[in-house]
From TrEMBL:
Keyword Metal-binding: no
Protein name from the UniProt record: Tyrosine--tRNA ligase
SUPFAM superfamilies: Nucleotidylyl transferase (SSF52374)
Domain named Tyrosyl-tRNA synthetase C-terminal: residues: 482-593
InterPro entries per record: aa-tRNA-synth_I_CS, aa-tRNA-synth_Ic, Rossmann-like_a/b/a_fold, Tyr-tRNA-ligase, Tyr-tRNA-ligase_bac-type, TyrRSs_C
Length: 609
């Protein structure tokens, strides 16, 4: 906990443990009077750090790197593991994670390096989350097989604005979670935690200066041998000079923050390894050039050296890509993915993955995670670990109030394992649920010059609609439901059309797969009026019966909703509306165009006869 020195003395809320630590850490003279001057604060910070270092050296506390490794954050360390472990114990260095605002929101994949950085914050390091207001205009080729499509200046400006706000919001939630989990955040200093835009220094940098200083120290051989460059040249697609030079800009960021803020460590996803190594070389070169430091000092002094740390690429235990829902990214922005859906995405985590995710995506102390996992193994059906994971992530991304609401909505919806579904929860979902029309074209909806006034939220909605998997997808990797409510025209509800409905609801990738799901007894539907005396509003699930004589209309709840489920917990609430309204509002759903085409064909054939 911080010492909250700006508050009057009686409001400095410090828990007993912190008070004890603080007394131990403070030089006697300081602990007796109130802390006022900057030097005092600095002295306390130093004393706090020294106490922590002593505890780590004596084995009473785990080192920073050990914590990161134990929780699964470390794939590669550039610069040497042992040296980094030592440095992180001895010196309160600066560390940073950068993201390019290529979309209006971060997605869960971004969280990995960010979480590692947040842990460093709890340990007292000076931390920077950087957004690439300038680098996004160039486009990082790392890990990409093709060049990015160029975005309009308006789109870019909105993305930058949105990502900056999101990074700031995440920090607020991180601090709240830190307090909740009782991490002793050390006395804050000006540079303890910052959100920076690389535009603020790259914009003023001239091309000549970049090439003269930094460019002269970067070797072509190393840059050419990078995977992203090799792949493109080998595939014949080639690469633009701008993309090829991208690492120079990222390297300059680091040099800027190294020289101004003592940032010695960069964290990033595994695709950033090349950029990070290029940055380390560049910083060394600049140190020799600008500061006139001698070669040996730069190459050998660990206390001033730079290091890189990459986080692993996440896949689920069954080998699928992590962070995709129905083929789309799992966004952290609430207007692009509701708290309900984000919660549901993580609630579906398999038992094999959940422990790993709890370590990576939550700040829950590791011993508590082990306890939860014991409980989980005893009664896996309750999914305690998954609920905990889902709630913590929503709390991190959307805040505590949203997390609580999402938890209640889910627990109510599945009040008895996955067997009952309460009417009130369903009604709530129907009234809150975002109805996202799946667009007919996969073109990005980009605001034009004349659309300058377009609000950010509208833009985000447009973005999410445009980047959804196309409605006619037959991609069998669709294993998820992205929205709380989908809208389906009543025309699709005919005797024998359950496979079509499962497809329209997004639970399966085609009508054929719908058939298969029903046949394998994996499809369920909520039965209306199935409450009991004890639980009159509870709704029960029933297996969708096989056969062509089943009428989905018999399962309509409140005459407006059909709730279908695939397997254990993948469910979808479908709002049923008339075809006229569906068409008038320009909506569509998987299989709809196909259905209409067939209907027209049949009508034409009927006329011919
Ligand atoms: N290149 C990074 C983002 C980044 C930008 C600037 C930096 O200084 C660091 C990282 C990415 O695409 O993920």
């Amino acid at each position: 906990m911080s010492l909250l020195t700006h508050l009057p003395r009686h409001r400095q809320l410090v828990c007993r443990q912190c008070l004890h630590n603080r007394r131990q850490a403070l030089p006697l003279a300081l602990s007796k009077r109130s802390i006022t001057t900057k030097q005092d604060a600095e002295q306390i910070r130093r004393a706090e750090w020294e106490t922590q270092a002593r505890r780590i050296r004596s084995g009473a506390q785990k080192s920073m790197l050990t914590v990161l490794e134990e929780r699964g954050f470390v794939k590669d360390v550039a610069g040497g593991r042992k040296a980094l472990d030592w440095l992180l114990t001895e010196k309160r260095i600066g560390a940073y994670v950068g993201v390019d605002p290529t979309a209006p929101s971060l997605h869960v994949g971004h969280l990995l390096p960010l979480m590692a950085l947040y842990w460093m914050y709890f340990y007292g390091f000076n931390t920077v989350t950087l957004f690439g207001g300038c680098t996004v205009q160039i486009g990082d080729p790392s890990g990409r097989k093709t060049a990015r499509t160029r975005q309009g200046a308006d789109v870019q400006a909105m993305n930058v604005q949105s990502i900056e706000a999101q990074l700031r919001k995440l920090w607020i939630h991180v601090k709240c979670l830190g307090i909740k989990h009782r991490y002793p955040i050390q006395t804050s200093a000006d540079n303890h935690q910052k959100v920076l835009d690389n535009g603020s220094w790259l914009k003023g940098l001239t091309a000549v200066d970049l090439m003269k200083d930094l460019g002269s120290g970067m070797r072509l051989g190393a840059m050419l041998s990078r995977d992203s460059v090799r792949q493109r040249t080998e595939s014949g697609d080639g690469m633009a000079i701008s993309e090829f030079c991208y690492p120079l800009f990222q390297a300059y960021d680091w040099w800027h923050m190294y020289s101004q803020k003592g940032v010695q460590l960069q964290l990033g996803g595994s695709d950033q390894y090349g950029n990070i190594c290029a940055g380390m070389d560049a910083v060394n070169h600049m140190r020799k050039l600008r500061r006139g430091e001698n070669e040996r000092q730069v190459d050998e002094d660990v206390l001033t050296a730079t290091f890189g740390l990459t986080t692993p690429l996440l896949t689920t235990a069954s080998g699928e890509k992590f962070g995709k829902s129905a083929g789309n990214a799992v966004w952290l922005d609430q207007t692009m993915m509701s708290s309900f859906d984000l919660y549901q995405y993580f609630l579906r985590t398999s038992d094999d993955d959940v422990e790993r995710y709890l370590k990576l995506f939550t700040f829950i102390p590791i011993d508590y995670i082990y306890l939860v996992m014991e409980k989980q193994r005893k009664d896996a059906g309750k999914r305690v670990a998954q609920h905990l994971l889902a709630k913590e992530i929503v709390e991190l991304a959307h805040g505590a109030a949203s997390a609580k609401k999402a938890e209640v909505a889910h627990k109510e919806a599945f009040s008895d394992g996955t067997r009952t579904f309460s009417l009130s929860a369903l009604r709530k979902t129907l009234s809150n649920g975002t109805i996202v029309d799946v667009p007919t074209s996969s073109n990005m909806i980009e605001p034009t010059e004349s659309d300058r006034a377009l609000k950010l939220t509208d833009y985000k909605r447009g973005f999410i609609a445009a980047t959804q998997a196309p409605s006619t997808a037959t991609d069998s990797s669709i294993d998820d439901v992205a929205n709380s409510v989908v809208t389906i025209p009543s025309t699709l509800l005919r005797v024998g059309t359950f496979p079509r409905i499962l497809h329209a609801a997004g639970l399966v990738a085609s009508r054929n797969e719908g058939h298969k799901l029903i046949k394998s007894k994996g499809a369920y539907v909520v039965v209306p009026n199935s409450g009991t005396v004890e639980n009159p509003h509870g709704l029960k699930w029933e297996q969708v019966p096989e056969g062509t004589s089943i009428d989905p209309n018999h399962y309509l709840v409140d005459w407006e909703a059909l709730v279908v489920r695939s397997g254990k917990s993948k469910f979808q609430v479908c709002r049923i509306i008339s075809e006229e309204r569906f068409e008038a509002e320009g909506m569509t759903c998987p299989g709809w165009e196909d259905f209409k085409a067939k209907r027209a064909e049949q009508a034409a054939a009927g006329k011919d006869q």
